[in-house]
Amino acid sequence: MKFETILLTQIQPDYFFCFSTDGDSIALNSSINEMGLQTPLPVIACDKGFKLFAGFKRFEALKALKIDVIPCRVLDVEMSIDMHFANELKVHCLEKSINLLEKSRICNIISHPNFNSDARKSCLSIIELPDLKKIIDSYIRLLDLPENVQIFLSRTDVTIKQVEIFRALDIVDQSKFTNWALDWNIRPVELAQIIRLCLDIAKKDRSEPFSIFNAVLSKLESSDNRTQALAQVKQMLTDIKFPQLTAWQQAMKTNKKDLKAPQCVDIAWDNTAERPGINMKIRLQSNKDLSSFKQWFDDSRVNNIIHRMVES
User: Fold this and answer.
1) Do residues 211 and 150 both lie within one domain?
2) In DSSP terms, which residues pair with 267 in a beta bridge?
3) Are residues 232 and 250 in the same domain?
């Protein structure tokens, strides 16, 4: 490796290796304009000059500022450009974290059939992903989502599991839900909960998920507090999904009082299953607990109340 100053016109950016999401270009331009380029661009000599495979934001900033002579690190051509990319990725990840969308782009890059196998393994290790096709493909599929969804994913801390819920929506609803989340500054985990409720209601009513959501928004009480408004939205959707929820919860309080369950038994309403019902948790720490539970559960009065709860 050696350091050289190279004419910008001699540098050819290879955007195949670009994985970073959009950043604050104004701030970057201002920084370079005031202090110059602090980190030389990594390039490799090629037939028509020099190939750039990292530092694309800095390169674009230099172009915008019309800086003609660029400080560069000219790297060894005996090492493959893929291995150089892996090395630059490692440095990048030491300086800043990468988001889900950037991981998706990296997976797409290293999945090219001609990408060096050793460099591929190194990249996967750096971004902490196993070399499993199923997992890598799940990341690459994120790049098929609409542009505004990808912007949302790049701006927030989100997991691959939270994103999977989008795939149950058509492309129109994907965009509509995302635009609302961006406007309200909603966290991905909260958006995933709302989408799940809308999907469950739509499946039951044979309607469109966002139409259900839009109807709820139209009934929303005006509020400057987004947290309270979001809570209202979730509650209204829950009430639609479980129309008897309020009455059932009140009945649960009465029934629990009548049941007089021992301390080792906790009874709650479970709405997480495909078919909601009673969730009974039993914790036995001693023979005394076992005897207490058996005596309570064998009581015909208790069985009658539980039967009433199930039937309701």
Assistant:
1) yes
2) 280
3) no
